[in-house]
């Protein structure tokens, strides 16, 4: 069961739009628990998230709330008919409808909490860190907000009238909270609360100087942590390119948490969708990687991942239930290397959702 928060009217909130992003949400929750947060954990899930994954999420989140903008009973339904491209954006806006809480911090599912940052709840709406690409805009991967039905309605109407300059929630929120850049510097969060991992490539000296102060890592970009190869025998992650190598330490922490806190619980589940979700991961030992590279008939990991996203699994071959289960059994039974220590704390003993 999830830990009981000592501050029950404030919450960390994230969104899982499918089973793959739910894996990120699971690691995020365990990272928050490791950091000894005192706030509640809430995950909003889209209808596409399968029942088995929801059960695992419920073990670590205090609230698992489905948000469906296509529900005919929702006023957003009419809006989507007029502006269908805003569907994902509307889904994220549902965080303003979490009326059980008076203040929340939203975290994208591709973020990782490195140390306790409950002090974020001392900030007001809308507080966020500058975006690397255009610092006069904030990055919407981490932001402080206050749930309010009227704010939700205002955002909805604003989206229908003005849309989003980048096609997503970040463009919309920056237009709506347009005074953020100039109004109050207190609403500008330090970069350590939303450290974009790929930014390390552009300013390595700063990363070396301030890495120990990083509180939240944001794996921004098309390559997410769960898309890298992880060797369960050696307990090591292998990055895909030079840019990602600058954030290898953070990626290693992500996989350490996944291997120790998430994988055993998911593998113990009885739902086939748990196995299928795990089947998307690249869990291969070094010898297996070499073997795959030597075979011209084996799909590349990129092709295999793309096929999974389209629902085109190779159930008779690589993605068969037997192959996936055997790989999971091997990963769980193999002794892991010593875990990299997080700046804050080790997981509490016997806390099931060590988020």
Describe, in plain words, how this protein is organized in 3D.
The protein is an alpha/beta fold. The chain folds into two domains: 7-193, Alpha-Beta Complex (Spore Coat Polysaccharide Biosynthesis Protein SpsA, Chain A); 197-333, no CATH class. It contains 13 helices and twelve strands. The chain has helices at residues 19-34, 51-60, 76-82, 87-93, 149-162, 169-176, 204-210, 242-245, 248-267, 272-278, 286-294, 301-309, 321-333; strands at 7-16, 39-45, 63-66, 103-107, 111-113, 127-130, 138-145, 195-196, 216-218, 229-231, 236-238, 282-283. Strands 3-2-1-4-7-6 form a six-stranded mixed β-sheet, with helices on both faces. A hairpin with a 4-residue loop joins strand 10 and strand 11 (236-238). Helix 1 packs across helix 9 (248-267) and helix 9 (248-267) crosses helix 13 (321-333). The termini are close together. Mean pLDDT is 82; it is low at 292-298 and 338-355. This is glycogenin glucosyltransferase. Residues 345-355 have a biased composition (Acidic residues). It catalyses: [1,4-alpha-D-glucosyl](n)-L-tyrosyl-[glycogenin] + UDP-alpha-D-glucose = [1,4-alpha-D-glucosyl](n+1)-L-tyrosyl-[glycogenin] + UDP + H(+); L-tyrosyl-[glycogenin] + UDP-alpha-D-glucose = alpha-D-glucosyl-L-tyrosyl-[glycogenin] + UDP + H(+).
